[in-house]
Specification:
Elements: E1 2-4, E2 10-12, H1 19-31, E3 74-80, E4 82-83, E5 86-87, H2 89-97, E6 101-102, E7 114-115, E8 118-124, H3 125-151, H4 164-168
Antiparallel strand pairs: 1-2, 3-8, 4-5, 6-8, 7-8
C-alpha cells in the first residue's frame, strides 16, 4: 500500500512479516534450501551469557488501590481522562457533574493517581449507593419488559402462558427408582 504526500513523494508501508513466511523460512532452513543462511541459528543460546528473566506482572494490577487506604465514607473509581492521548474532557465533565473529584496527589504516597489515560477520583459512598440503586432499578425494568414480551400477549390474543405449547415446553423433574441387582 502506498500513499502520496503533498509534495508528490511516494510513501510506502511495509506489512509486518506474516506467520506463513516464518514457517516457510523455518522449513527451508531445515531442508537446507539454497540461499538460506544456516549459521544464523544459534548453536546453544545458553552459552551466550547469563540467562535473562522477564519481569513478572501477571499478579500485579498497577491500578489496584488497597481498600484500607480509602478514607471512610468515600469510594474511589478510575475515570477516563484521555483516549490515545486525546483529552476526553466530556467524560471528566460528566464525572464532575456526578460529584466525582480527583484524589489529591499527596494523599497516598507511592500511588500514581494519573496513569494510562485514567485519573483516580473519589465520591461519597451515599452517592455511589444511590447510583447503584438507580442502575439496579433500570436493569430490573428492562428485565421485566423482556419477560413481558416473552410471556404476555396483546389483549384479544391467545394467552401465551396457558397455551398447549407453553405447557409442552416445560420441564418436569421426576425420579424413577431403579433396582440394582446384587
Amino acid at each position: 500500500m502506498s500513499n502520496e504526500s503533498d509534495d508528490g513523494a511516494r510513501l510506502s508501508r511495509v506489512a509486518p512479516p506474516r506467520r506463513e513466511n516464518v514457517r516457510q523460512r523455518l522449513e527451508a532452513t531445515q531442508r537446507g534450501a539454497p540461499g538460506v543462511d544456516e549459521t544464523a541459528a544459534r548453536e546453544n543460546p545458553r552459552d551466550e551469557g547469563p540467562r535473562l528473566h522477564r519481569k513478572r506482572r501477571t499478579n500485579h494490577d498497577p491500578r489496584w488501590v488497597d481498600p484500607k487506604v480509602i478514607p471512610a465514607g468515600w469510594e474511589y473509581n478510575w475515570k477516563r481522562a484521555s483516549t490515545l492521548g486525546a483529552p476526553d474532557q466530556a467524560n471528566i465533565n460528566e464525572a464532575t457533574e456526578n460529584h466525582w473529584s480527583p484524589v489529591p496527589e499527596g494523599r497516598h504516597p507511592g500511588l500514581l493517581v494519573r496513569q494510562a489515560g485514567l485519573v483516580l477520583m473519589e465520591r461519597p459512598v451515599y452517592l455511589c449507593d444511590e447510583a447503584r440503586e438507580e442502575e439496579y432499578e433500570t436493569a430490573a425494568q428492562q428485565n421485566d419488559g423482556a419477560v413481558a414480551m416473552l410471556t404476555d400477549s396483546p389483549a384479544g390474543h391467545f394467552d401465551r402462558a396457558s397455551s398447549p405449547m407453553a405447557q409442552a415446553n416445560t420441564f418436569v423433574k421426576t425420579a424413577y427408582g431403579v433396582a440394582i441387582p446384587e
